[in-house]
Amino acid sequence: MVRIARPLERPLVTRSPYWLSAAVLAAAFMAQTLALPHPQSAPKAAQAARVGAQLGAIASMGVELPAQAESGVARTAAPEPTVTPSQAAAPLDEAAAAAAPDPTQASTPTDMPTPTEAPPPTPTPPPDRGKLIVIDPGHGGRDPGAVHTSGGVVDLTEEDVNLDVALRLAEMLRQDGYRVRLTRSSDQSLAAGKAADLQARVDVANQAGADVFVSIHHNGSVNRAERGTEVYYCSHRPYADANRRLALLAQEAIVRNLRQAGHDVVDRGAKDDIIRGHLALLGPRNLPRPSRMPAIIGEALFMTNDADAAALMRPEIREAIARGYFEALKSYFEGGG
């Protein structure tokens, strides 16, 4: 900083009646002189011209400046320092270093865009196979069907097992594109009286225009040693061949699935219901309105046999029976049924 020296013993000489204004202007000049840019930032000629102009303005107003002022101002024009390229680049290098990220610090999660979760894929609906299957869970309501007893207490009823297997089968068929109708979906009868109840079940299939009628049962016998799987069909119908083919497919598939599930089942074979005088659901004359489509009655296991009944208490065995019916029906339709 350059200061203008003024001797204390020498009074300020004025040549104008407006000496106060000149003094103010001189003070302003001194402030501007002190605020002049650094010599490196302005050319010497421009600085000299600016100072000379301001000094001339003050002198014309009659203000007498000390001699040291001019020399003092002149001393502000110091020689320009020599700056090497490395010194000029140093501030830039320091700024770049300050702006560079610290490699020891991990970037925050906000530095990266949050990925958007893809919507779950829409399940593909099963193909419509154009076939309607009526499933009849036998018995129900006041008719429990065959039962298993232990110590004189009923611990398993046919009506419950039939319904459970039927519901499992219905779900499998629907998942594979078949249309399904159940004659009952709860513990109920369809009509009062045995004959009326059986006729109501056949009527459901006839009125729905079913392609196949499957009645799910489980056997019973006074001989508790009897056990195994058998499927019935009727040979005295216009579609007797279809009846027999469906029965054979069901017999094989149910036995195979039961064995795969771990039950040592007895294969009793597919049977013509003529040996029992025709069964109401299958025969041509047992009911006023007989069935009008291929039909079978499945007797997967014996409720009255301890080994078969113990197997039927296991969900995986009921699933195996339903799987057997499903595979048989699928093979039947795929084979032109």
Q: What do the pLDDT scores average to?
A: 81
Per DSSP E runs of 2 or more residues, the count of β-strands stands at 8
Overall geometric form: elongated
> Which segments are poorly predicted (pLDDT under 50) over 5 or more consecutive residues?
1-20, 68-78, 88-92
Compressed to H and E, one letter per element, the order equals HHHHEEEHEHEEHEEHH
Instruction: Give the helix level as a range of percent.
Output: 40-55%
Instruction: State Rg.
Output: 55 Å
Query: Terminal Cα separation, in Å?
Result: 112 Å
Structural class: alpha/beta
Task: Give me the CATH superfamily of the largest domain.
Answer: Zn-dependent exopeptidases
Biggest sheet features? 6 strands, mixed
Going by CATH, the architecture of the largest domain would be 3-Layer(aba) Sandwich
Task: Give the total of domains.
Answer: 2
- CATH fold topology of the largest domain: Aminopeptidase
**CATH top level label of the largest domain:** Alpha Beta
* Neighbour order of strands in the largest sheet: 4-1-5-8-6-7
What is the percentage of strand-forming residues?
Answer: 5-15%
Helix tally equals: 9
